[in-house]
Design a protein that fits this description.
about 550 residues, single chain, globular, eight-stranded parallel barrel, TIM Barrel, Glucose Oxidase, domain 1, Enzyme I, Chain A, domain 2, 17 strands, alpha/beta, about 15% strand
Length: about 550
C-alpha cells in the first residue's frame, strides 16, 4: 500500500474497492465549421432540454435537498442565456455546437469565479451542465458517478452537486477527491450523509493500478492498494434524529439556520427544517445586471427569498462586491491585489447611495414577507466602519444591524464592535484565508483553510467571549458550521447560531442535541489546546466519545 494525505472533511473510516468517477470531457474542437450553421445552432436547445429532462426525472424520485439540487441543475441546463449565447456562437463564428456550448458555458463560469467566494464555488456546477450538454450533442454517456453494484469508495477529480445529490449511502463507503477543499460541495454533502471524505488528495488520480483504498476522514489519510481491499465501515457518523429545535442536550439554545443565495435555496432550507436564515447572499440580484437593479426589482427578488421564513429570523448580508467581484454599473477600476482592496462595505463608502437603495429594498421585502429581518455588512475591519453601517441600517427603518467577522482585525476588536452593533456573524471561510494568507479556492492550500486549524478556533473563541460578556448573539455562517463534530465545539466557544447549507441542517441539529453545553465547552478547550487540526479533531473525539 502507499499512503497519501489530503484534508479530512467528514469524519469516519472506511475501506473497500474503488470506483472512479469519469473525468470531464476533453475540450471539443473548434473545427470543422458546420456547413449549415442554422441547422447546427438548432441542435443546442434540444440537447439542453434532453439533459434537463433527465435531471428533472431524477429529481422526481427524491425529496428534500437532493430534489432541490437536481431541479436547480436542470434549470441551469435550459437557462435561456446559456442556450442563446451558444446558438449565437454557432451562427456568428461558425463553431460546431459542442464547441459553442463549451465556450458559452466557460464565459458564465469565468464570471462566477471572478465573483469569488460562494459564487466562485458555483462555477463547477456550470461546468457540469456544460459537459452534460456536450455529451448529449456527441451522443455519448455523460460524465459522472458510475452505476454501483457493490459498496465502493468513490474517487474523483471533484464532484458536482448533480453527481452526488442522490447518492446511496449504503453503496458509497467514502469520498476521495484530488481537488476541492473544506468548503467544497463534496465536503458539505459527505457530512450531511455521514460518509467519510478526504479532499485535496494530490496525485491520487495518478496512482497506477489503484483497486482498493482505506480512507480516514479524521486524519486525511488515504491508503491505496493494487489489490482488492475488504469492505469495512468503522466510526461512520450516524445522522440521528432531530426534533427541529436547535439546542444542546441540557437545553442551551443554538439556532440551526441556513445559508442561501436564491429563492430555491430558501425553499430547500425551509424543507430541511432550518429555523431561519443566517446568511442571505444578495449578490445574485446584481451579478448579471448591466445597470443597478431598481429598488422595486430588488424588493421583489428579496421578498421571494424571505417568503418561506415569515415570522422567523433572517439575516441579510448587504452587497459583497468590489474589484474582485466586478459589477458592470460600478467603475471599480483595476487593483493590484483586489482581495485586499475595495470590496464589501468598502464599496459603500464610495457609493453610499447604492447601499441606501439596497437597505430601502430590504426594508420593503421585510414588510412584504413578515420575516424578522436583520442586516449585516461584509468586510468590516474597524469599530468606526461598524458604527457607520449600523447608523444607516437604523435610518432605513431596519431594527437590527450586525457585521461579518471575516478580517482578523475585526475578530481582535470584537468587544468594541459588538458595543456598536446588535450581533456579529463569523465568516470562517474568509477569516481562514486571511489568517493564513491562503486563497480558499487554491486546492494546494486546502489544509491551511481547514476550519479545525487551532489558530482559527482561537480567534473564534475571542469573538465568542466578547459575545458572552456583552450578552449579544455571535453566529457562524461559514462552512465550519456544517461539520457536525465542529458544531459542538463552536457552541462551546460561545457561538449562539450556526448557519449552513440546507443539506447539513438536520445532521448538525441532531449532533448538537447529543451533549450538554458543559461537555461541548470541554471539547472546545481540548481543540484550542491542540497544535494541529488532526490533533484537534482527535482531542474532540476523545471528549465526546464519538
Amino acid at each position: 500500500m502507499s499512503r497519501l494525505t489530503g484534508v479530512g472533511v467528514s469524519s469516519g473510516r472506511a475501506s473497500g474497492p474503488v470506483a472512479r468517477v469519469a473525468d470531464p470531457l476533453p475540450e471539443p474542437p473548434a473545427a470543422p465549421a458546420p456547413t449549415d450553421p442554422a441547422a447546427e445552432a438548432a441542435r443546442v436547445r434540444p440537447a439542453a432540454e434532453a439533459v434537463a429532462e433527465r435531471l428533472f426525472q431524477r429529481a422526481s424520485r427524491v425529496d428534500g435537498d437532493a430534489k432541490a439540487v437536481l431541479e436547480t441543475t436542470a434549470a441551469m441546463a435550459i437557462d435561456p442565456a446559456l442556450i442563446s449565447q451558444a446558438e449565437q456562437l454557432v451562427n456568428t463564428r461558425a463553431l460546431p455546437a459542442p464547441r459553442a456550448v463549451y465556450e458559452a458555458a466557460n464565459g458564465f463560469s469565468d464570471a462566477l469565479r471572478a465573483a469569488g467566494g460562494y459564487m466562485a464555488e458555483r462555477a463547477r456546477d456550470v461546468q457540469d451542465v456544460r459537459d452534460r450538454i456536450i455529451a448529449e450533442l456527441f451522443g455519448m454517456k455523460p460524465p459522472g458517478v458510475p452505476e454501483l453494484d457493490r459498496p465502493s469508495i468513490l474517487l474523483a477529480r471533484d464532484l458536482a452537486p448533480a453527481d452526488t445529490a442522490d447518492l446511496d449511502p449504503a453503496l458509497v463507503l467514502a469520498l476521495v477527491t484530488e481537488e476541492g477543499g473544506p468548503t467544497s460541495h463534496t465536503a458539505i454533502l459527505a457530512r450531511a450523509l455521514g460518509i467519510p471524505a478526504v479532499v485535496a488528495v494530490r496525485g491520487v488520480l495518478g496512482v497506477p493500478d489503484l483497486v482498493g483504498a482505506i480512507v480516514d476522514g479524521d486524519s486525511g489519510q488515504v491508503e491505496t492498494s493494487e489489490e482488492m481491499v475488504a469492505v469495512q465501515v468503522a466510526e461512520r457518523a450516524a445522522p440521528g434524529e432531530w426534533n427541529g429545535h436547535g439546542a444542546t442536550a441540557d437545553g442551551k439554545q443554538v439556532k440551526i439556520i441556513a445559508n442561501v443565495g436564491s429563492g430555491a435555496d430558501a425553499r430547500a432550507a425551509f424543507a430541511a427544517g432550518a429555523q431561519g436564515i443566517g446568511l442571505f447572499r444578495t449578490e445574485f440580484c446584481y451579478l448579471a445586471a448591466d445597470d443597478e437593479p431598481s429598488v422595486d426589482t430588488q424588493r421583489r427578488a428579496y421578498a421571494e427569498v424571505l417568503a418561506p421564513f415569515a415570522d422567523k429570523p433572517v439575516v441579510v448580508r448587504t452587497l459583497d462586491a468590489g474589484a474582485d467581484k466586478p459589477l458592470a454599473f460600478l467603475d471599480m477600476g483595476v487593483e493590484p491585489n483586489p482581495a485586499l482592496g475595495v470590496r464589501g462595505l468598502r464599496v459603500a463608502f464610495a457609493w453610499p447611495d447604492v447601499l441606501e437603495r439596497q437597505l430601502t429594498a430590504i426594508a420593503g421585502a421585510a414588510a412584504d414577507s413578515g420575516a424578522e429581518v436583520s442586516v449585516m455588512a461584509p468586510m468590516v475591519a474597524t469599530v468606526d466602519e461598524a458604527a457607520w453601517f449600523a447608523e444607516r441600517v437604523r435610518a432605513a427603518g431596519l431594527p437590527r444591524a450586525g457585521v461579518m467577522i471575516e478580517i482578523p482585525a475585526a475578530a481582535l476588536s470584537a468587544a468594541e464592535i459588538l458595543d456598536v452593533v446588535d450581533f456579529v456573524s463569523i465568516g470562517t471561510n474568509d477569516l481562514a484565508q486571511y489568517v493564513f494568507a491562503a486563497d480558499r479556492m487554491a486546492g494546494a492550500l486546502a489544509e491551511l483553510n481547514d476550519p479545525w486549524q487551532p489558530a482559527l478556533l482561537r480567534l473564534i473563541a475571542t469573538v465568542g467571549h466578547a459575545g458572552r460578556e456583552l450578552d449579544k448573539p455571535v453566529g457562524v455562517c461559514g462552512e465550519a458550521a456544517s461539520d457536525p463534530l465542529l458544531a459542538g465545539v463552536l457552541a462551546g466557544l460561545g457561538v449562539t447560531s450556526l448557519s449552513m447549507a440546507a443539506a447539513a441542517v438536520p445532521v448538525v441539529g441532531a449532533a448538537l442535541a447529543k451533549h450538554p453545553l458543559l461537555t461541548f465547552q470541554q471539547a472546545a478547550e481540548a481543540a484550542l489546546s491542540a497544535p494541529t487540526p488532526t490533533r484537534a479533531r482527535a482531542a474532540v473525539h476523545a471528549v465526546l466519545g464519538s
